[in-house]
Amino acid sequence: MQLAMTRTMTGLQRYNQLLLLVIVLVIAGFVSGGAFLRPANLILVLASASAFGLVSFGQALVVVGGGFDLSVGSLVAMSISSVVFFQSDLGIVGATIAALVTATCAGLISALVISRTKIPPFIVTLGMLSVADSMSWILAAGQPITVPDYNDSISPLFDSIPLGMNVFPIVVLAVGFVATSLLLHRSKWGRYIYAIGANEAAARIAGVPVMRTKLLSYGLSGLLCAAAAVVYLYQNISATPGEGSDYLLLSFAATILGGVYMYGGEGSIPGVLVGVICLASITSALTIAGVPPSIYQGVLGVIVLGVVLLQSRIRK
Amino acid sequence: MPHRLKSILQDLDVVVILAALLIVAAIFKASTFYNMSNLFAILELSAVLGIAALGQALVLIVRGVDISVGAMMGLAATLSAYLIPDLGIAAAIVLPLIACGLFGLCNGLLIEKGRIPPIVATIGMMWVVGGLAGSISNGRLIPIQNEAFKQIALGSVFEIVPMFFVGLLVIGAIAYLVRSNFAIGRYVYAIGGDEGAAYYSAIPVGRIRIAVYGVAGVLYGIAGLLMASYVRSGMPALGKGYEFKAITAAVLGGIALSGGRGNIFKAVMGAVILIVLYGVITAFAVSPYVQGMIQGLILVGAVYYATRND
Question: What is the CATH number of the domain that holds A127?
Fold first, then answer.
């Protein structure tokens, strides 16, 4: 009975998410006078969602597990700088691996501190935010960053395809989506993440390896931040150290819009993907409608607060 | 007697840390650290952070946390710089403070009535407030020409104590009076200590918590206005990172993240320590890029120190 109830609830929630997507797409179509719904634009929207989508999947793993990762934005910034730092010695492939490893280690350190001490996750990741932000300036020696290598080597592969520029970001996003979905919904580690998010003490008593599960989710969050950095460099070629603080806002908003429960224990990666697409659509439609970017932040804030309010109303 | 001595020493830990920092500065970098303009700046920035930390400390005591500090400071500064040419200095001080107070109350309402966790509500508010400030300034810096407003930062008592610091002392005195002479001072601690018990003691828990966020908003607003006067301009990013600094200062001052405990004056001392520490780091010509790293480690270290025995 309980199970049937839960199934119905999950089914409804999935339906809710799709409904949300349809509403957003229709409104976006309206606001932009139809320009938004052209296929070319939809592909652009998906490609533009790639970097923050990857970050959001990582954030979702952490939030479902009952935590917060405030360091994601700085980890993206740190990874961008890591690529530059390691590039001269290791070449672009080596530098990419080094950046992935560095960001994963940062996530692992956060997880280690969180599970070994009584410091709340938001303080630990706030500390990591500051450290990683520093690292991004130190690694880049405070200089503007330019890495044309990704774009130079990857984009010619898809030259023959219309809008081929956007294949790589979308493929990376798809890989991140499939990997995190399989982890959260088809593996025992996913079960562990849900269990810890719902009730950490109970999970511990039931024999869930709490610390290793947290190492996994925060570590993956770091790894995905580095993957997002690669996509960012592919798309933008140049960056300033410390750039990427927007990713915290966007990943958080996408996670919450995607139906992840902010206290942990509930949510799905497909839901988060919907959240990501909704956000990218809103941003795109606002741009087409000529709303100045300085206001986006406020609009997103209002949306997040509204959705969270709804979430807690429904649960009461 | 030894027990009493121990507790006094524990209360004085912030003073000991501060003294240690000042001695280190005196031994190694006396000439760069101990000159009038540097000390004046340190006192001024201490006052800005101290006032923001006071707001954060109040919120932490009622078992909350406020991430919207920096955004509120930015809004106050931007709004003030925007209003001052048309409406004059009085309106440019009062209106931003009212706005910050109202947004603070919204924080409280979202948390108390909307049942949203404080960290989520205040992060959301940070974006709303930041977006508002961004749309007022159009993403640019607004210079402030008003002489009287600029004088706030230049003013001092006996040419030694900056006006900012006098402001901090006045606000501290008000806080002290409220804390020791009015029931609400005790209520605030009671709510953080044991909300259920406070509720059954007929303390209006909800209203007080909402009010605390409102008061905190006004304090961030004051900090933002002082900062605007200090840099003679207003922009949304002016308070960037202050949420971080305010939490660190409060925790350094022994405010418990779990609520109900901590002395708000030690939170102000925590702010002074942090600013002096930055001063010392700068005097040692350490790369500014390393500051963030030190800041992060201090925050995590201070919370670890505070929670190790919980």
Answer: 1.10.3470
> Band of the pLDDT at A6, cuts 50, 70, 90?
low
| Contact check, Cβ <8 Å, A130/B303 | no
Does residue A27 lie within any of the structural domains? no
Query: Tell me, what amino acid is at A183?
Result: L
Q: Which domain holds residue A44?
A: 36-315
A153 touches chain B (CB under 8 A): no
Whole-Å CA distances, B63 to A53, A95, B69, B119, B205:
33, 44, 16, 11, 12
| pTM of the shown model | 0.87
**Alpha-carbon span A307 to A297, nearest angstrom:** 15
Q: Which residues lie closer than 8 Å to B159 by C-beta, 6 or more apart?
A: none
* Chain-chain contact of B127 with A298 (C-beta, under 8 angstroms): yes
Domain presence at residue A186? yes
Tell me if B44 sits within 8 A of B101, measured CB to CB: no
- Asked whether the beta carbons of B289 and A134 are under 8 A apart, the reply is yes
Asked if the C-beta of A257 comes within 8 angstroms of chain B's C-beta atoms, the answer is: no
Q: Is residue A101 part of a domain?
A: yes
A52–chain B Cβ distance below 8 A for any pair? no
The residue among B127, B242, B258, B309 with the most chain A CBs within 10 A of its CB, best to mutate, is B127
Q: In B, residues 216-275, which contact A (CB 8 Å cutoff)?
A: 236, 244, 247, 257
Is the Cβ pair B127, A256 closer than 8 Å? no
The domains found in chain B, sorted by start residue, are 31-307 (1.10.3470)
Instruction: Kindly determine whether residue A294 and residue B134, on different chains, have CB atoms separated by under 8 Å.
Output: yes
CA gap A233, B302 in Å, rounded:
36
Whether residue B82 contacts residue B140, with contact meaning beta carbons closer than 8 Å, is answered with no
Give me the mean pLDDT over the A136-153 stretch.
88
Domain count for chain A: 1
A134: nearest CB among B124, B132, B293: B293
Min Cα distance A134 → chain B (Å) is 5
Token pair listed for A76: 């993206």
The pLDDT tens digits along chain B (310 residues) read 456 666 666 667 777 788 888 888 777 777 777 777 888 888 889 999 999 999 999 999 998 899 999 999 999 999 999 998 888 888 989 999 999 999 999 999 999 988 888 988 998 999 999 999 988 988 788 988 888 888 787 777 777 778 788 888 889 888 888 888 888 888 888 888 888 888 888 888 889 999 999 999 999 999 999 999 999 888 888 888 898 899 999 988 888 887 778 888 888 888 998 898 888 888 877 787 888 888 889 889 888 887 776 6
